[in-house]
Amino acid sequence: MGLLDTLLGRSKPVQPNLDQLFGLPSAALTLEVNGTFRPTGYGAVCYRKAEGVAFNQVESDVEELLEGIDGPKVQVSKDKYGYTWVLCQRAQDDMTSLVNDVHAVNSALQDNGFGPYLLCTLVSFQDDRGRKLALIYLYKQGTFYPFAPLAEPQRDNTLELQIKSQLGNDLRLEKDLTRWFPVWGAPGL
């Protein structure tokens, strides 16, 4: 960044730090202690599919890696907007393995030059009343935010803000609420 960039108000984009995903087990524990939200065992990575053999090979390698010995159940799907989702499923009490799985998907795409195609990663939770919650990692921002869907297009903003206040010490949270995008119909949510 040079002086001209500073004068014109341009900022350097935040570099994603996928290791922040490893804060999710601690956040899950905080949610369980502070309330009734528990992990569902589902995590998903969303990306825009690139054309070409190289990308297809990376996708195949990721699925093969995850479905190896003792791997999670993996499903690949497309949403109504054309984005691809890799859904991983583990036991509800195995958050560490689930985080390792979604980290592996993100890392494989990033390490093979497809990082710009990554959009977000989510891990889902549910409480005793059936309320759903996702902690979403925005790849391009390097931050998390809570998403509490009700019936589309409504969401529980009050709950999202409560969760934000609970997880401030566990995760790097997105401060700009306009970036808290809904992920309607996300697999695993």
Q: How are the SSEs ordered, and which strands pair?
A:
Layout (H helix, E strand, L loop, with lengths): L2 H5 L16 H11 L3 E10 L5 H14 L6 E6 L5 E6 L5 H20 L3 E9 L5 E7 L4 E5 L9 H11 L22
Q: How would you sum up the major sheet? A: 6 strands, antiparallel
Which CATH architecture would you pick?
2-Layer Sandwich
User: What helical percentage do the residues reach?
Assistant: 25-40%
Q: What count of structural domains? A: 1
CATH topology annotation: Alpha-Beta Plaits
CATH class: Alpha Beta
The ordered string of helix (H) and strand (E) elements is HHEHEEHEEEH
Q: Characterize the overall form.
A: globular
Describe the model.
Strands 2-3-1-4-5-6 form a six-stranded antiparallel β-sheet. 32% of the residues lie in helices and 23% in strands. The protein has a single domain, classed as Alpha-Beta Plaits, CATH 3.30.70. With 189 residues, the chain is of the alpha+beta class. The protein contains five helices and six strands; from the N terminus they run H-H-E-H-E-E-H-E-E-E-H. InterPro entries: PspAB-like. Pfam families: PspAB.
Search tags:
single chain; 189 residues; alpha+beta; Alpha-Beta Plaits; six-stranded antiparallel β-sheet; PspAB-like
Concise synopsis of the structure shown:
InterPro entries: PspAB-like. The chain has helices at 3-7, 24-34, 53-66, 95-114, 157-167; strands spanning 38-47, 73-78, 84-89, 118-126, 132-138, 143-147.
